[in-house]
Task: structure prediction
Amino acid sequence: MRSDVLIVGAGPTGLVLALWLTRLGVNVQIIDKAAAPGTTSRALAVQARTLELYQQLELADTLVAGGVHGSGVNLWARGEKVAHLPIANIGEDLTPFPFMLVFPQDQHERVLIERLAAAGVRVQREVELLDFSEQSDHVLARLRHADGSEHSVEATYIAGCDGARSQVRQQIGSGFPGGTYPQVFYVADVEVSSPALGGEVHIDLDEADFLAVFPLAGAHHARLVGTVRGERAERAENLGFDDVSDQAIKHLHLVVDKVHWFSTYRVHHRVTEHFRHGRAFLLGDAAHIHSPVGGQGMNTGIGDAINLAWKLASVVRGCAPDRLLDSYEAERIGFARKLVHTTDRVFSLVSAEGRWADLVRTRLAPTLVGVLSRSATARAFLFGTVSQLNLNYRGSALSQGAAGHVHGGDRLPWAVAGYEDNFASLAQLDWQVHVYGAAQPGLIDFCKGFGVALQQFDWQPEYQAAGLVQNVVYLLRPDTYVALVDPTSNWETLDRYFSARGLKPLERRHA
Result:
């Protein structure tokens, strides 16, 4: 059996990679050693940038319809609400999805599996990667099935989406430096009777165990994410819900009526040394893992998958040289390191013990949140950071030029003028050019001859407000990030960009 890409691991990262590659015409095989998808969820938040990218495959509306829009974050101390950060429509001028969506990972995976099956790809369950070797033009992987039988498969590339204990990572010998938090994390799916959660997140800041409460669909359905520490953490394997400190639960005035399920896990803060080794790639938890603070983990893995998918498709289909794949590590590893560092510092703050730590957490933090809640600029920056709208690839070899506030490597600013949404064309999953104003005749001819789609938008004030500049050429990558910003609007600049990197559109288009 031969495939273009063998994907090891069928969590959200592996499923998204398989789905994008399949849509881009790449033959994939996806395996997972688990007998069935998970039924418990650690990841809950789906950030705005993920939903924007999901629009490319018409996935966003399905998740939005089934999830809860987080409308605010409440901080509690000593049994009282001490700060409130409103986040409902906090980014309404920035994105079509100006909210944090709460949509549990198990439901999320089911949506992806169903969409992948509709595209003709089935996850091969109870199949374990034993090892693989790299040949001149492919990898040869040895797999084991539930009945103990083994067979080998060939693939042009292999993608390790197989979690913190990644067999792919171990095989390529990439280190996984970092550490493990002393606390044990737990997640519980519960029914509660208490003052209405109101679609908001509630976090207890007292010196008791850390606890965050996330609203789920249903008036009294919620997910608790918390920690246990000290002596209880040493017997993590035998912990039950009754072992969780009820002090934090009482601080939030929660009455837990029913526990649907309860699960514990250890959390690490690590980033692997390499995201690529020859024909092997690491994505998601196989490449980076950190505390759940900020709801970044699953979204970052999905970002890895979409970043790599279009590059693999370009190389497999002869539209780019193999060196394009080096940009995957270059673009993603720096963000992963920064994210792990940031979430580690925040979690260390909220979980630290001692008099001064308690003072910072219960007095200083609420004051800071109060200041943020009164500043529109601060709220927008915070939303842009947590939602990953601010993530950019400005330092990438694929990024070039600038005009106004937009640089090569930035996410394309979102703007709606009248009935025209400039994100509508992004579903093409290919290179395209945007011009807000008038495109020069030479540019029109080049785009038509080269086979890259050209989108022209009549200049409107809304585009200027979004940070776009009139008549400038914006070349967009298949993952909707800006590759080239050319204020001269000269077709030759576009030609040189593609020629210098050996790139071609994935599909030949005719304007």
Summary: DSSP finds 13 helices and 29 strands in the chain.
